[in-house]
Each structure stands twice: as structure tokens, then as C-alpha cells.
């Protein structure tokens, strides 16, 4: 069951560029509503764990600053969808796995498997194919 939920989450995030493009709204509007839809759920989680929260003022301010940085990042992401298109925007978001794998190899010495190398090659080939400009 957990794998199915993870797959649904990945698919939802993967197609966010397509959904934003289909919504035909401004990047600021898309950013606002993505945050507005998440706020009630996050509020419920916060209320459920409020009694166990032992963070000080510094940690709370860091959390607020992180949220603001995320909002700016999300808005820039929505702006980039307008520039590069939904297809390439989807690929750019999903290419992060290549960078995470490279960081793990470099920072933690994890050895790449053949399966991971083939997957990365397919992802990079997709990026190359999508980035070709048709005339």
C-alpha cells in the first residue's frame, strides 16, 4: 500500500507542470493556490503534534524563513513552466534524481549499480530529445 501511495505522490508531482499549464493561470496564482490547498492539511498536522512540539523561537523562525524561500522557489518554478513549456518543465523537475544519485556517489561513496546507470542514461537521453528545438 505504501508503494502505491508513493507512486501516486510521484505522479502528482511529476505532472505538476502539465497541470499548471492546463490551468492557464498566472504563475503567482498557481503558487498561491498550491500553498492554499496545502495549508489546511498542514494546519491539521500541526494541531495534532502541537503538544509534542519542543522547538524554540529560533527553530520556528527558521521554519518560517524556509517556507518563504519555498514560496519564492515555487513561484520561479511556475514562471519557468511558462518559458520552457510543460513537457520540458516536467523533465527538468524529474532530472533531480540524477543529481541526487551523483551527490550520493560523491559524498557518501555509494557504488552505482548497473540498473541505476541505465536509468540515468534513459533520463538524460529524454532530456536531450526534449531539448531539441524543432524548426
List the main descriptive attributes of the protein structure presented here.
2 domains; 7 helices; 135 residues; mainly alpha
SS content category: mainly alpha
Low-confidence stretches: none
Strand count, sense and barrel status of the largest sheet are:
none
> In what range is the share of β-strand residues?
under 5%
What is the CA-based Rg, rounded? 18 Å
Q: What percentage of residues falls in helices of 4 or more residues?
A: over 70%
The sequence of SSEs as H and E is HHHHHHH
Total domain units? 2
User: If you average the pLDDT, what whole number results?
Assistant: 82
Counted beta strands: 0
Described by the principal axes of the CA atoms, the overall outline is globular
Q: What is the subunit organization of this protein? A: single chain
Tally the helices. 7
Distance between the termini: 46 Å
Walkthrough of the structure:
The chain folds into 2 domains: 2-84, no CATH class; 95-135, no CATH class. Helix content is 83%, strand content 0%. It is globular and about 50 Å long. It is mainly alpha-helical and 135 residues long.
Produce a short descriptive summary.
The chain is mostly helical and 135 residues long. The chain has 7 helices and no strands.
Summarize the SSE layout with pairings.
Elements: H1 2-14, H2 16-23, H3 27-49, H4 57-84, H5 86-94, H6 96-108, H7 114-131
Amino acid at each position: 500500500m505504501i508503494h502505491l501511495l508513493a507512486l501516486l505522490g510521484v505522479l502528482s508531482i511529476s505532472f505538476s507542470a502539465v497541470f499548471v499549464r492546463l490551468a492557464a493561470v498566472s504563475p503567482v496564482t498557481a503558487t498561491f493556490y498550491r500553498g492554499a490547498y496545502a495549508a489546511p492539511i498542514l494546519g491539521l498536522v500541526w494541531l495534532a503534534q502541537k503538544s509534542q512540539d519542543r522547538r524554540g523561537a529560533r527553530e520556528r523562525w527558521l521554519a518560517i524563513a524556509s517556507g518563504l524561500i519555498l514560496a519564492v522557489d515555487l513561484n520561479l518554478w511556475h514562471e519557468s513552466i511558462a518559458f520552457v513549456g510543460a513537457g520540458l518543465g516536467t523533465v527538468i523537475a524529474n532530472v533531480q534524481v540524477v543529481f541526487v544519485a551523483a551527490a550520493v556517489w560523491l559524498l557518501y561513496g555509494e557504488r552505482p549499480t548497473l540498473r541505476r546507470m541505465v536509468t540515468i542514461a534513459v533520463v538524460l537521453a529524454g532530456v536531450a530529445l526534449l531539448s531539441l528545438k524543432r524548426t
